Amino acid sequence: MKTFDVQAISLHVSRQQAFAFIADAQHLPDWAQAFASVDGKRALMRTPSGEVEIDLDVRASSETGSIDWYMSFPDGSVAVAYSRVVALDPDNCVYSFVLTPPPVPLEQLEGALEMQSKTLTEELGKLKGILERGQ
To answer: Is 12 helix (H, G, I), strand (E, B) or coil?
Structure first.
């Protein structure tokens, strides 16, 4: 069983522009389907079981371009999403995302990562559109 997925997308914007947008958690609902809303360090996430409030800790480094989200659920489980923005030249960058399985029991994992991977592909396309249109 595959336990991770790595996806990347080229962006025709500066690394700084992409980093600033992606690292701002308030923008997550604009491009990440799982986020219904974000308010400071709290977020309302959409899950297959319905919406749930979580604690959201964004750990971002403009020096390295890394942006990681630590999501703490009410049951004590923690999910982490890892990503990074890398400059190619002054006007272009690459955004990469490491998708790991959700914090669910093993019997629920079958197919979960594959579904999340398809969703991530759509989300990265949406992010590209938002950033390249300058919105």
So the answer is: coil
State the sign of the Cα–Cα–Cα–Cα dihedral 73, 78, 79, 81. Answer: positive
Find how far residue 10's CA is from the centre of its chain: 16
Written as one string, the DSSP assignment of 23-53 is H-GGGHHHH-TTEEEEETTEEEEEETTEEEE
Task: List pLDDT tens digits, range 92-112.
Answer: 999 999 988 766 554 454 566
Q: What DSSP element (H or E) covers 117?
A: helix 112-133
pLDDT in tens, 46-92: 877 789 999 999 999 999 999 999 999 998 989 899 999 999 999 99
Q: Which fold has domain 5-133?
A: Alpha-D-Glucose-1,6-Bisphosphate; Chain A, domain 4 (3.30.530)
Write down the domain spans for the chain.
5-133
Report the C-alpha gap between 132 and 95 in whole angstroms.
13
pTM listed for this prediction: 0.88
CA–CA distance, 16 with 60 (Å, rounded to integer) = 12
